[in-house]
Amino acid sequence: MPDLQATAENAAGQIKPFGEQAEFEKHLMTRFLGAVGQDPDAYGAISHAQQAYTTALVADVFRHPDRPDMGEAIRNAVHPGGALAGMMAEAKAHAVIELKTHENGEYNEGIENNAKWTNRIIDLVGAKYLELIPVGGDAVTWIQEDVTESVVEKSKREALNDAVLTSGQSYAKAEEAAKQAAAAAAVATGGKAAGLTDEEYSVYLGSASTATADAYSSGHNMSEKNRPPREQ
Predict the structure, then answer these.
(1) Sign of torsion, CA 46 25 57 86?
(2) Rounded to 5 degrees, what angle do the CA atoms 27, 21, 10 make?
(3) pLDDT in tens, 71-96
(4) How many angstroms separate the Cα of 175 from the Cα of each of 87, 139, 149, 207, 213?
(5) What's this model's pTM, rounded to 2 decimal places?
(6) Which of 85, 81, 89 is CA-nearest to residue 54?
(7) With contact defined as beta carbons under 8 Å apart, do 2 and 17 qualify?
(8) How many angstroms separate the CA atoms of 197 and 217, rounded?
(9) Contacts 24+ apart (CB under 8 A), 223-228
């Protein structure tokens, strides 16, 4: 996940991969996610991992309050995850609406069945990278629970009937769900993990929401343009 998010956007250098960063070409990564994201289980795993890692990046920003522009740092932290969320949403919509290879409900099941990826990411970054406080014990457990809940709730908000799926409402609804996930989970959970009060982190909810919306749109459009060719 650090490698994927760094490929999406890391101009500010806030993403620090474990070991050597994998060098992906952005258009090929987009095509890869557009292909594997059509599978409900892969969609669920990547969605959990993306939100967990984004939350960890936000927590890392809050743990360094000496940054000259915290708002910009928060925007940089959520932007890559927003782009990936847009790519995954386009892959899902392509599979459900155009290819008709899966039903919308299968993706909800994929989310529910792959919560372990939230735990794996938080365990990894909490112990070795972002120093979520305190490491281990109850704190890491509630961080995992909060992130998992946000991903599941996002999936429920995206649950679409046939009429909505075939209209422009589907994109707007998915975008709003992504914005809420970034603001409510990444900022709130990341802020609490860094020891901030509600008042201290809530001022950055708007920054996270706006940056996620911009990135979501960019990722969605990029995925659509780089869509893998359909097999004959």
Answers:
(1) negative
(2) 60
(3) 999 999 999 999 999 999 889 988 98
(4) 11, 30, 18, 15, 7
(5) 0.87
(6) 81
(7) yes
(8) 31
(9) 223/30, 223/33, 223/34, 223/86, 223/87, 223/90, 223/91, 224/90, 226/27, 226/30, 226/31, 226/34, 227/31, 227/34, 227/90, 227/94, 228/31, 228/34, 228/35
